[in-house]
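SEQUENCE-TO-STRUCTURE ENTRY
===========================
What this section holds: a protein sequence and its matching fold, both as plain text.
Question of interest: how does this chain fold, as expressed in backbone structure tokens?
***
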Amino acid sequence: MLVHSRTGRWASWALFLVLFVPLFAVPLAVVVAASFATNWSGAFPSGPTVSHYASALRGEALQALTTSLVTAAVASLLALTLGTWAALAAQHLPAAGKRLVDALFVLPVAVPSVVVGLAVLVAFSQPPVLLNGTRWIVVLAHTVLVTAFAYQSVSAALARLDPAYAQAAAGLGARPARVLFRVRLPLLLPSLNAAAGLCFALSMGELSATMMLYPPDWMPLPVLVFTATDRGSLFTGSAVAVVLMATTLLVLLALSRVRTRASYR
């Protein structure tokens, strides 16, 4: 830690616990406790059961989980491809051009996501590109929302990347495409992996824009959590939310293993 004195370290840990426990740990613990309860009329839940998880892992909930995983995976892949390509291209632009590209990619996260959803809905509800009522409009909206994070992550990694490696490869006669795929992208692999994890997690939890766009046959899991709690099924909704959190964490843990190996490489 940056704090070297023992008293300062204890104070830092105490401040961390004071902020972390009520803001993060307690709300998550309440959701987990509610997912195992059948009643909550006092200070603590009662009637422990696992029946809510039986509902959260089959039928409509299982289909919604699959929808979220597919949407997040496709949106993350598209966002990572577009963000990486844009970051590599913007690196060779003049300062004014790079600032313009930065602003364009940050714009979707600078406005509320419901505005992005409305913009996508208006833009693709009529020919020549008619996506309204299809699953692709949901994937497109998620891609627009998360591409900024991929672009920023890759841009920051490129700023720290030593150009001597690419210059040495080019000096030895490697073509630009070979330099890109055999030198630059492998060096960027840890940052690409981190960007993919961030995009996936954000897509898995996206609700506002999705509520405006999803068709009946393509309902992601956050929408199911919202509809369940809106109908008063708080305990079932809590179980579905725990499944959503657990699935996202498992995917991020798997990606962290890939990131570790890429870092060693």
Q: What stands out?
A: The radius of gyration is 22 Å.
